[in-house]
Amino acid sequence: MTRVDRQAWDVVVVGAGGAGLRAAIEAREQGLRCAVICKSLFGKAHTVMAEGGIAASMGNVNSNDDWQVHFRDTMRGGKFLNNWRMAELHAQEAPDRVWELETWGAVFDRTPDGRISQRNFGGHEYPRLAHVGDRTGLELIRTLQQKIVSLQQEDEREYGDYEARLKVFQECTVTRVLKAPSKSGSAAGGRVSGVFGYERESGRFFVLEAPSVVLATGGIGKSFKVTSNSWEYTGDGHALALLAGARLINMEFVQFHPTGMVWPPSVKGILVTESVRGDGGVLRNSDGKRFMFDYVPDVFKEKYAESEAEGDRWYTDPDHNRRPPELLPRDEVARAINAEVKAGRGSPHGGVFLDVSTRMSAEAIQRKLPSMHHQFKELADVDITAEPMEVGPTCHYVMGGVEVDPDTAAAVGVPGLFAAGEVAGGMHGSNRLGGNSLSDLLVFGRRAGLHAARYAAAFATGAAPAVAEADIELAEAEALRPFGAEAAGNASGGVAENPYTLHQELQQAMGDLVGIIRRASEMEEALHRLAGLRARARRAGVEGHRQFNPGWHLALDLRNMLLVSECVARAALEREESRGGHTRDDHPGMDRRWRRVNLVCRLADESAEPAAADSVLGLIRLERLETPPIRGDLLELFEKEELRKYLTDEELTS
Amino acid sequence: MSYQARFKVWRGDADGGGLVDYEVTVNEGEVVLDIIHRLQATAAPDMAVRWNCKAGKCGSCSAEINGRPRLMCMTRMSVFDPAETITVTPMRAFPVVRDLVTDVSYNYAKAREVPSFVPPAHLKPGEYRMHQEDVGRVQEFRKCIECFLCQDTCHVVRDHEENKTAFAGPRFLMRVAELDMHPLDAAAEEGLDRRRGAREDHGLGYCNITKCCSEVCPEHIKITDNALIPLKERVVDRSYDPLVWLGNKIRRRGAEHAP
């Protein structure tokens, strides 16, 4: 048996995007020793891709804004399926989290009186998004990164070691959350004891022992063919949580961002920020028509302009006009674009036209949307100051995730496990508003770090849950399997599978069959294909050695992508209604009775066994969970008339 | 629209390696990173490459293409002649880990040596007031995606490993300039002199403004003109300004001659 390097920490954070870094800062500021593990280099996390801004009701541009209005917008955007307590905490705490960034060196765009400027965005009643041009995510990551460096500088002064209390393990992947057996001896009820992972560079295995583990791994987009997500988004945290005994909720809700690039093919899916529409961009079909006016759903009729003239006036006089329908929540716009293309009114490369050139001066476009200008110029030879962009829906964000306690971010059912950011479920309900992601990362990243630290601090020195040697050996064997796949494949009569091919087939299946518009027969077909892929993935084999071997990394990531894909497909098949990021062709209406139902995914008990490739049952079990009623004072923020669209009559009378 | 392109990619590790020839399909609209990915998926599944966002926003896929430091995701194949052989090598200024992946820890070490933003003691969170015209320059520097191409190309360290100890490189001298220009940075109140630090701790004097860094910057940041030269000017203001020197001299002489 090889010796695996072991280190002891208080809190381990998996993921170094906005949520992970904010959690790590908090845990360290609580005086605990915190390790951050990330797959990329420090500062490269997918958060850098966030463009539009951070939603926080600071009221700098329109003083009517406050947390209650933000809460209301968030619940409407999520079609009332949100965990209302998370939405409440998020709206209340977001302004403090933004202001705090300034004290760490962030430099946001300013209002004329020198405060943080705020911009309009889909679904937000007032200008609310703190931003830096269209590169807000980069500013957020850099600020958190530099705050971590400043804490390390403090530690260097105090202990002579930058990494005494806060260390980033970059280019490492975690493959298992480890648990100490419960008192009864079963792993099911045990506490978290650490993580098992490997260094991508050398392939060496390591164990970080810690009583608290915070999952902050982001999303699952790499299971879909057209996505705005980077290679890191393989659903690692979702799968790690499932494998550790936690549960995932709302996995059927996947956000397709309405505007991704559609051409050239190699950049298909890359995001075109919603700020383009927030700042005046309009959507047109091949007839030149602003088609969004035809797609305003009943629940939003009173809130959106009825004519182009009114929509145009809104940009300068928002108090007396209603916003243009291009600024409907993302799910509505994505479906509308999909429908236009299907009806044969699409652009040459299968999208629609998004135009700012006729509505903003070239100078204003370059100032307000510099990275979009750059992106189209460099990648598509399109000058957005002179011609329209071609855009179409792209898989962007998963609303579903680990079921957590709203106040502490603790994963339900697994003591010592926490989750924050995209990997956590509940906050955004069935559809996330733009700008609510960065604020989510900060609000719940901080809460996860705080409560992970408190939980870890409660263990006396030497009394933390122990990592079992046998679990390390199992994790090691699992991680090494792709190297022996060829031999094992021959023994069982199969051939070794190319992990890249399996990945492409998975993306194709999910994109075609569990994509933006869904129907039962297709999802059944998807589950069938997933079962086949699962069996073949066990034979995924790689050549070469463990040093920086991307084929091996992908072979290991396939386990995670297959697990989360099954969750998405199974939950989507079960929910027989259309709501937010879940649209059923065969059940097109929203059903008030489904609002209170969360679909919960957990790992089947028998799935620890090698024979768990059962094609009918799969590895995931679904349960229905009734959500707690929304607190009375929060319901009073809405008109009765509006609530009637979402809540059942029994809920309204009680 | 597809064609077969000839590529030479450096394969190897710290112990050595060399260029390996590949023939590979190129489709319309593709970038160099797409071709590297195609090689991984077909001819060379263990070819090591760093990448992430594939949209020029994260700065992971830095390499040298035909000898020029570039982001692979932002280098379109259409800029090359289909007959041309395209050579892709790792960044030269940093030690090779494997294939196109280099050890960039020099940059992270230098980042830690720059003293952080010092928040003003008299302002609470939410009380910061800054004007857009005063933060525009700072924001230009904060566009940096830390691809380290400027560090790679800078001749002070490119072929002079021995200078790495004393020289922070353009990216981190720009970071010093950024903090020095931040309207609310309170370093001076804490007794921290960023300009002296630039000269004494970060090797600003090594830079002789050849602008190589600005030329390779994928964000088109004017590193030399807007960060390094102004920083040099202010360092000189402090340590040696001929006019100040002359003024002091005259005043002192005047004092000497006073009755």
TrEMBL record, chain A:
FAD-dependent oxidoreductase 2 FAD-binding domain boundaries: 10-438
Lineage of the species this protein comes from: Bacteria, Bacillati, Actinomycetota, Actinomycetes, Kitasatosporales
Cofactor(s) this protein cannot do without: FAD
Domain Fumarate reductase/succinate dehydrogenase flavoprotein-like C-terminal: 503-601
Protein's organism: Streptomyces triculaminicus
Record key words, sorted: FAD, Flavoprotein, Oxidoreductase
GO-annotated molecular function: steroid dehydrogenase activity, acting on the CH-CH group of donors
UniProt cross-references to Pfam families, sorted A to Z: FAD_binding_2, Succ_DH_flav_C
Protein name in the entry: Fumarate reductase/succinate dehydrogenase flavoprotein subunit
Record: active site: R330 (proton acceptor)
PANTHER family (alphabetical): SUCCINATE DEHYDROGENASE 2 FLAVOPROTEIN SUBUNIT, SUCCINATE DEHYDROGENASE [UBIQUINONE] FLAVOPROTEIN SUBUNIT, MITOCHONDRIAL
TrEMBL record, chain B:
GO terms for MF: 2 iron, 2 sulfur cluster binding; 4 iron, 4 sulfur cluster binding; electron transfer activity; metal ion binding; oxidoreductase activity
Cofactor(s), names only, from the UniProt record: [2Fe-2S] cluster; [4Fe-4S] cluster; [3Fe-4S] cluster
InterPro entries assigned to the protein according to its UniProt record, in alphabetical order: 2Fe-2S_ferredoxin-like_sf (IPR036010), 2Fe-2S_ferredoxin-type (IPR001041), 2Fe2S_fd_BS (IPR006058), 4Fe4S_Fe-S-bd (IPR017896), Beta-grasp_dom_sf (IPR012675), Helical_ferredxn (IPR009051), SDH/FRD_Iron-Sulfur (IPR050573), Succ_DH/fum_Rdtase_Fe-S (IPR004489)
Protein name as catalogued: Succinate dehydrogenase/fumarate reductase iron-sulfur subunit
Residues of the 2Fe-2S ferredoxin-type domain: 5-92
Record has Iron-sulfur as a keyword: yes
Domain of life: Bacteria
GO BP term (any one): tricarboxylic acid cycle
Pathway note: Carbohydrate metabolism; tricarboxylic acid cycle
Organism, as annotated: Streptomyces triculaminicus
Family: Belongs to the succinate dehydrogenase/fumarate reductase iron-sulfur protein family.
Organism classification: Bacteria, Bacillati, Actinomycetota, Actinomycetes, Kitasatosporales
Pfam short name (any one): Fer4_8
One term under GO cellular component: plasma membrane
Alphabetical UniProt keywords: 2Fe-2S, 4Fe-4S, Iron, Iron-sulfur, Metal-binding, Oxidoreductase
